[in-house]
Amino acid sequence: MLRKAFDLAVVRPYLENMAENQNGASNKLDVQLESTLDSVDLAETSILKIAEESGFGEDDLHKLGMAVREAMVNAVVHGNRYNLKKKVHLRVDTDPSSLRVTIVDEGEGFELQDLPDPLAEENLLRQSGRGLLLIQAFVDEFSMHKAGPPLGTEVTLVFNKTNQSEAGGSAE
Amino acid sequence: MSVKLTIRQVGDVTVMDANGRITLGEGSSTFRDTIKDLTARGNKKLLLNLGDVSYIDSSGIGEMVSGFTSVTNQGGQLKLLNLNKRVKDLLQITKLYTVFEVFEDEAAAVRSFS
Fold it and tell me: Which residues have C-beta within 8 Å of that of residue B96, sequence separation ≥ 6?
C-alpha cells in the first residue's frame, strides 16, 4: 500500500493540472527518478494510471506497461548502472489519440547496431538482450538517440489508442 | 506482487506452480534460486506451470532461458505448461517457442517426460 501512495503522490499533481494547449495536447508527467528498481515500478504504475485516465483499454495498457518497464530497466540498469548520482528523466505527454513517453538516462550511450540480434539462432539461449525487441514489438513508434552529455540515451515511445481502447473494453 | 513458486511432485516429475509476476529483481531471483535448488537435489524433470503468471518481462524470460540451459546441461528437461495468451505472444516475439516444449494439459506434459 505504501507503494500505491507513493505512486499517487507523484502522479496526482499532473492529473489535477491537466492544462491542455490548443491541440488538446498536455504534459502529464515530467520527473527525475533515482536509478533504482523501485523507480522502474514507480514509472510503470504511474504511466499506467495516466494511460488509464486517458482512456487506453486493458490490452493496450499491458503493452504500454511492458514497453515502459523495459525502457526504464535499460535506463537504470544498462544506462545509469544503478549509480545513485545519476537520474532517469521521465516525461509523459498525451493528446486525444496517443500517449508519448520519453525516458533519458545519464549513461554513456550505445549504438543499436552494436547489440547482438536476439532472434539470431546463436543468440536464442542468451539470458539477456531482449528488452529493445519487446519495446519495439509493443509500441506504435519508437526512436532512440544519444542526447549528449550529461545526458545519455534518449528513448521515445509512442502509443496510439486502438478501437478497443476507445470502447474501453478488452480483447482478451 | 513478485512470483511465488509452489513445488509438487507428480510421479518423477517436479511441477512448479508459479503465481504472480516474473520480473527483474525478486521475481526473477526466486525463479533462479528454485531451479538451482531443485537440480542440486537431483530433480531433472521439471514442469513450470505458468497458468497463474500475469506478467513476465525480459529479465523473467532470461531467467526461464537460463533455467532451461542449466537443467539441459545437467541432463534434465524443463518444459512449460498453461501459457496464457500474453505469455504465448512473448514466446512468439522472442522466437523461444522453438526452444521450449509447451503443453496445455498437465497429464500429457507429465507423460512426455517418460
Answer: A124, B61, B64, B65, B90
**Residue B87 near chain A (CB below 8 Å):** no
Pairing state between β B102-103 and B77-81: parallel
Residue B103, chain A, CB below 8 Å: the answer is: no
Determine the average pLDDT of the residues in A153-171: 74
pLDDT-derived band at A111 (thresholds 50, 70, 90) equals confident
CB contact under 8 A, A66 and B25: no
How far, rounded to the nearest angstrom, does the alpha carbon of residue B13 sit from its chain's CA centroid? Answer: 13
Q: What is the DSSP string of B34-101?
A: HHHHHHHTT--EEEEEEEEEEEE-HHHHHHHHHHHHHHHHTT-EEEEE---HHHHHHHHHTTGGGTS-
Where is A169: in which H helix or E strand? Answer: none
Q: What is the ipTM of this complex?
A: 0.89
Which DSSP letter does residue A150 get?
A: T
Pairing of strands A98-104, A153-160: antiparallel
